[in-house]
Amino acid sequence: MEQEALLNSPIEYLKGVGPTKGDLFKKELGIFTFGDLLMSFPFRYVDKTQFHKIKDLNEDSEAVQIRGTLRRLETFGEGRKKRLVGRFRDDTGVIELVWFKGANWLQKSLQIGSEYVAYGKINNFKGKISLPHPEMELITDAGIKKATSFAPVYPSTEKLNLKGLDAKGRRKVMEVLFTKIKKTDIPENLPNYIIERFNFPSRFEAVSHIHFPQTAKQLERAQKRLKFEELFFLQLRLLQIRGHRKATVKGIPFPAIGKKFLTFFHEKLPFELTGAQKRVIKEIRHDMGAGGQLNRLLQGDVGSGKTIVGLMCMLIAIDNGYQACLMAPTEILAQQHYAGISEYVEGLGVEVGFLSGSVKGKKRAALLERLSKGEIDILIGTHALIEDWVVFPKLGLAITDEQHRFGVKHRAKLWQKSKPSPPHILVMTATPIPRTLAMTLYGDLEVSVIDELPPGRKEIKTIHRNEGHRLRIIGFMKEEIAKGRQVYIVFPLIQESEKLDLQNLETGYELLLRDFPMPDYQISVVHGKMKPKDKDFEMQRFIDGETQIMVATTVIEVGVNVPNASVMIIENTERFGLSQLHQLRGRVGRGAEQSFCILMTGYKLSAEARSRIQTMTGTNDGFKIAEADLQLRGAGNMEGTQQSGVINFKLADLSKDQRILQIAREVAARILDQDPKLEKEINYRLNRYMKTHGKKYKAWSRIS
Ligand code: ADP
Ligand code: MG
Predict the structure, then answer these.
(1) Does residue 431's CB lie within 6 angstroms of at least one atom of ligand 1?
(2) For residue 42, which of 143, 154, 161, 204 has the smallest C-alpha distance?
(3) Which residues pair with 124 in a beta bridge?
(4) What is the atom index within ligand 1 of the atom nearest the CA of 272?
(5) Which of 173, 270, 373, 619 has the highest CB neighbour number within 10 Å of its CB?
């Protein structure tokens, strides 16, 4: 108990911190207690085991550490311009050390003629190199010891720096903390059998070494164990939630495969299902027939044929006497689903209804009336579907398309649309998610993947071009249009500069009018500032083939299907993220014709932008692109992750730690298999840890 109290002590009580610095810790870093401080890990280390020779230093050297003697110390200038310059010599040469701040104090404390370790970043001024503001460590016995280890570097801010909590200051505070901490303050939370199996250091060792590693090996082992721990407890929690739901939530059993499904399958299906589609339908059927509740994420690349899978699952619900609904994020997309699905089920005796904000008055009243009487089998629409006044007497299956577009709260409402058992839930996403991310964000769901495209698709040809090719591209557009095809031109939209973007789009549009004059050519324009009604109108003209060119911002990104469009031109490609580019490209290549995606950029590109474009021209595979995106941007910047607290890891990195995650999940699953409630003696540490820390992992993905 006393130990608990130590880690719960307010940060200002730590020797050397006090109220002023304590406040800064709280405000700037969210560190309130000794425990918070202990768990705020360095974000990098300076390898102080290596010393550089002064003669080897040059303008390309970055952080360097040199060991030598301070020879001279002089001040130049007055007042604010005052600087302190020292000469530092090792057995190979001499370098200047320069300080612009704290000159008086430094002049008093530094000892001329003594040996120091100087550490800092090389500055290059017109070919003359110096070491500004080096950290100076006097070589005493202790000094050498410190200088031959790895120095932790903690996140800092300017305010902290000013109050003496710079790299060195923060390290000091950490050192003081560690003089207080005992082994019992950092109790073990993993069972011995895990520690032994992976040869992990104890928790106490790991936390000590993450702050003050003596060797690279020590650091690596500490990192591995702490990463494992982070990922493992999250997986344990997610799998517990899943297990708990399976055990307690009763699903609506759909035992029968009935007439409608079979008739559709044998007589209506206009193509052979791909192997992946068949497998996924089987997986879903199994979940819905087993008495539990279906809770599945269906991943599949753009154009992989998720809609038909969704439809066939809805037919299973209908065959078993239930209704189904399909919710899409935009009016256009919902309408496309409505039109497509109505056509598919013609003659099957399946009633399909449509509901969105635009369905009003008498039409809406009539629809709701039919719905409540059970006369509608499939209701398709926007998030209007989840409003309280939409009442399904027998909702058996709820599908959301492009689910990442919906907020968690939106999705949660679907659960309440059927009582006492919630409907089966299927969420579909066309933005493939890397495995590690799926395991983390949707770790409490089952996941199905359609990893195969329907046969006969022509690969979209993707090429990178710039302004110099403009004329040829215009010629190419004309050729394609003459063949009866349609063209998209997309301009970037970034929130901060909406005005500028619109200007971009408008200028682009005007330039385009010169090359594609009316009445020979018709152009649709769609952007985010338009009223939804006008947007839909313009979009519809393009869908109906009345316009040949669609100039748009990314509003067209989501699932629009115009099979006749064969060219996608993306302007300022460097300003788009990878998954967005892939989504945009997916708007073409939907018909039988060869399609093209032209990525326009400026002449100068950052290395990252170049890498993105190479990924795009190199592959059409959405999963590969998602993986590349994760590597380039990191998990925290991926779509759908911001709202989730679950990936705020201290150490683990989903783009790099796949293997640890995989193992952590497997270990967690095996433990829960054998001991679902963590009641066994060997798991008592897990039980204790989950009781106090488990709550922080919310199953926010509960689409439910
Ligand atoms: P997405 O997965 O992007 O939602 P869709 O469901 O819209 O893809 O399907 C894209 C197109 O592929 C549609 O025109 C659909 O009719 C067609 N399609 C789906 N499955 C097959 C298949 N097995 N064989 C041929 N075409 C298919
Ligand atoms: Mg789709």
Answers:
(1) no
(2) 154
(3) 129
(4) 23
(5) 173
